[in-house]
């Protein structure tokens, strides 16, 4: 069985906003977090794309990735991901070409197919729900710009550069990564059994491409480390409450403290969504978390683990990532 110390561990950060915190403060916190992630020995640090979300500051991932790359020296930096239906492939290629030119051999291009959260956001972006249906064509065009361009159009400075592309997928989206010969980033959003089946199908159907000759699976999971299971469970409450709130009120809010959540009235539907959102996380002390991660790696044969952790308590969140690094990353600098 593969040891946890044999595979890379990376971080996805969504620049979550806490109650009373500004969006600029959350973005600066992301950059500082990346500095620590590099010190602790994580392999990659990725940022995400969300638009018009009160509780998420990360709306311009390539801009934020540039700030993160400038503030660090070795860690790979990328996006998890740029939502391609929101953008023109030419512009995305130019942006990543610029990043790779400024920070050579450190940039990852993580791509997703989600569109704006609401009709108003989609209109503001100049897109609709159906734009995601053209994702295959958009993806092919984007990849072409890194080789010979498209119809006489060249995406300088991207052309000729090698920027690794990763495809974010949930469940059935894994077949697209196989067809394009791209590394797969997958989460167990639809359940672990469905995720494992999708990964197996991806590996079976993988079509090698120049420079991408073998399947690669990055499994994304939520991990919270604390002294006790009860403490770790409490750290999960703010994100679960935000998820339930968004599903019932159409707006993803800033994170609030657990003690405030305990005073919040919830309808039966909200309570059910809240309880659902508390499931599927790997949490607890090291004695619980490490065996759970080992089981996940054994079931998926993951090549890499992408960790995301969201909670109101900033210090506890950083401590969770520090403790994980100390446990799974060989000779993690500053992780002890």
Describe the structure.
This protein has a single domain, classed as TIM Barrel (Alpha-Beta Barrel), CATH 3.20.20.30. The chain starts with 8 loop residues before the first strand and ends in an 8-residue tail after the last helix. The longest helix has 21 residues, at about 230-250. Strands 1-2-3-5-6-7-8-10 form an 8-stranded parallel barrel, surrounded by 8 helices. The radius of gyration is 19 Å and the shape is globular. It contains 12 helices and 10 strands. Helix 1 (about 25-40) packs parallel to helix 12 and helix 6 packs parallel to helix 7. The protein has about 325 residues and is of the alpha/beta class. Helix 6 links the parallel strand 6 and strand 7 (about 185). The model has no long low-confidence stretch (mean pLDDT about 90). The chain has helices spanning about 25-40, 60-70, 90-100, 120-125, 135-145, 175-180, 190-205, 230-250, 260, 270-275, 285-300, 315-330, and strands at about 10-15, 45, 75-80, 80-85, 105-110, 165-170, 185, 215-225, 280-285, 305-310. Helix content is about 45%, strand content about 15%.
In terms of topology, how is this protein built?
Blueprint (H helix, E strand, L loop, with lengths): L8 E5 L9 H18 L3 E4 L13 H11 L4 E4 L2 E2 L5 H14 L4 E6 L6 H7 L9 H10 L20 E5 L4 H7 L3 E4 L4 H14 L11 E9 L3 H21 L8 H4 L6 H10 L4 E3 L1 H15 L3 E5 L5 H15 L8
Parallel strand pairs: 1-2, 1-10, 2-3, 3-5, 4-5, 5-6, 6-7, 7-8, 8-9, 8-10
Helix pairs in contact: 1-2, 1-12, 3-5, 6-7, 8-10
């Amino acid at each position: 069985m593969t040891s946890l110390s044999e595979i890379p561990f990376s971080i996805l950060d969504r620049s979550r906003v806490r109650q009373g915190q500004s969006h600029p403060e959350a973005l600066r916190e992301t950059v500082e977090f990346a500095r620590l992630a590099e010190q602790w020995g994580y392999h990659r640090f990725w940022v995400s794309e969300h638009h018009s979300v009160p509780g998420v500051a990360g709306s311009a991932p390539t801009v934020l990735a540039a700030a993160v790359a400038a503030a660090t020296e070795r860690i790979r930096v990328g996006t998890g991901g740029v939502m391609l239906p929101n953008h023109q492939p030419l512009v995305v290629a130019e942006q990543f070409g610029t990043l790779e030119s400024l920070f050579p051999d450190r940039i990852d291009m993580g791509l997703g197919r989600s569109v704006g959260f609401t009709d108003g956001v989609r209109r503001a972006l100049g897109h609709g729900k159906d734009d995601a249906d053209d994702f295959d064509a958009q993806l092919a065009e984007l990849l072409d710009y890194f080789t010979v361009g498209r119809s006489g159009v060249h995406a300088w400075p991207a052309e000729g550069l090698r920027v690794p592309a990763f495809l974010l997928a949930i469940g059935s989206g894994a077949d697209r990564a196989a067809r394009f010969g791209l590394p797969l980033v997958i989460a167990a959003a639809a359940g672990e059994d469905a995720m494992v089946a999708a990964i197996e199908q991806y590996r079976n159907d993988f079509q090698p491409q120049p420079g991408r000759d073998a399947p690669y699976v990055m499994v994304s999971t939520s991990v919270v480390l604390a002294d006790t299971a009860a403490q770790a469970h409490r750290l999960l409450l703010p994100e679960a409450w935000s998820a339930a709130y968004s599903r019932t009120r159409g707006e993803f809010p800033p994170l609030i403290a657990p003690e405030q959540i305990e005073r919040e009235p919830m309808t039966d539907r909200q309570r059910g969504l809240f309880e659902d959102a508390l499931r599927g996380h790997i949490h607890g002390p090291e004695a619980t978390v490490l065996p759970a991660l080992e089981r996940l790696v054994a079931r998926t044969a993951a090549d890499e683990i992408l960790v995301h952790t969201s909670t109101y308590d900033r210090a506890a969140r950083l401590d969770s990532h520090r403790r994980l690094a100390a446990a799974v990353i060989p000779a993690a600098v500053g992780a002890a």
